[in-house]
Design brief:
Layout lengths: L3 E17 L2 E15 L2 E7 L9 H10 L1 H5 L4 H7 L4 H18 L3 H4 L8 E2 L2 E3 L4 H10 L5 E5 L6 H10 L4 E5 L6 H13 L4 E3 L18 E4 L18 E4 L1 H4 L2 H14 L2 E4 L6 H10 L5 E2 L17 E2 L2 E2 L9
Length: about 325
């Protein structure tokens, strides 16, 4: 029986509102790619992201345009040249990995030489808001080992201090989502160091981050919007200490594996991050994150409902996916 492709558009409500420096959202609108062959089904999920010019309809159209290649059985390696990096390729690539695992009886973990994947400590995200509201959120989750705090205004000192006071024992990362002005960058980094912040993610806009190479960086600075695929890495060595690998940016697990290897060779620390999506989107990233310094795969925890079965989250840990979910 030939391989067949099914494309679904799904929406999962967010519990409350998720707010970053660029705006707020109340649902995770995702695309599910399902490949079927000889009674086996492989699944992949992507989250189109407007910051990169993606829409649900546009990403679905990209996958549809590649249907002949996909149904002809294209490999993940050949997909790298057939489709551009981004959400569309991610959904297809992850579905190929899942289908091949189910057809061949060898798990994705085994194929990428993971003898026994382990549970990982993942961040929990605190949305951007007024300092007292963010402090209340941080206090409610202060038992968690790792918090990721959304910032990105001209004056975030009060937010840093409020969250640190509310969660004195948590490791804290900040994510400015390109929102810090150059005029306050050094001040914010000094306050971050004083508050014992572990890492600051993407403080300046992508393409306008040269200042990071010219100043002292008293805390680790991580590239997110500035880095998408392996080809971006070499030009960032002078301004970033870490990179955030997201499968929706790289365009799937195949490219993400190569990107992680090259980033480690170049001396970057690794964060595995995510868009707000379901457990299906997180599952490949949990395997990729097994030796990462920072893990931020809390997307399903921000949803009012997840896929079933989903990933197992207990306390600060996320567990590797069961075969019934992916891989």
């Amino acid at each position: 029986m030939p391989r067949s492709l099914e494309i679904q558009m799904n929406s999962f409500p967010i519990a409350g509102t998720f707010t970053i420096s660029r705006g707020a959202k109340t649902s995770a609108d995702v695309i599910t790619c399902i490949l079927a062959e000889n009674g086996k089904r492989g699944w992949g999920e992507c989250v189109p992201y407007r910051r990169y010019g993606e829409t649900v309809e546009g990403v679905a159209a990209q996958i549809e345009a590649a249907r002949p290649l996909i149904e002809a059985g294209i490999s993940g390696e050949d997909l790298l040249s057939a489709m551009a990096p981004g959400a569309a390729r991610n959904a297809v690539d992850c579905a190929i990995w899942d289908l091949e695992a189910k057809r061949g009886g060898k798990s994705v973990a085994e194929r990428i030489v993971l003898a026994s994947p382990k549970p990982l400590t993942t961040a929990y995200t605190i949305s951007l808001g007024e300092p007292e509201i963010m402090a209340a959120q941080a206090r409610a989750y202060s038992a968690r080992a790792l918090l990721k705090v959304k910032v990105g205004t001209g004056d975030d000192e009060c937010r840093m201090r409020a969250v640190r006071e509310a969660a004195p024992n948590s490791i804290i990362m900040l994510d400015a989502n390109e929102g810090w002005p150059e005029a306050t960058l050094e001040h914010h980094l000094r306050i971050a160091a004083e508050m014992k912040i572990a890492l600051v993610e993407q403080p300046l806009p992508a393409g306008r981050d040269e200042m990071l190479a010219e100043i002292e960086r008293p805390v680790l600075v991580c590239a997110d919007e500035s880095v998408h695929h392996t080809g971006d890495l070499a030009s960032l060595r002078d301004r970033y200490d870490a990179i955030n690998i997201k499968l929706d940016k790289t365009g799937g697990l195949t490219e993400a594996l190569a990107m992680k290897r090259e980033a480690q060779r170049l001396g970057f620390q690794i964060m595995l991050g995510c868009m707000v999506g379901t457990s299906l989107a997180m599952a490949p990233a949990v395997l990729l994150a097994q030796d990462a310094e920072f893990v931020d795969l809390d997307g399903p925890l921000l949803l009012a409902r997840d896929r079933q079965p989903g990933l197992r989250y207990t306390a600060s840990l996320v567990w590797p996916p069961e075969p019934s979910l992916w891989g």
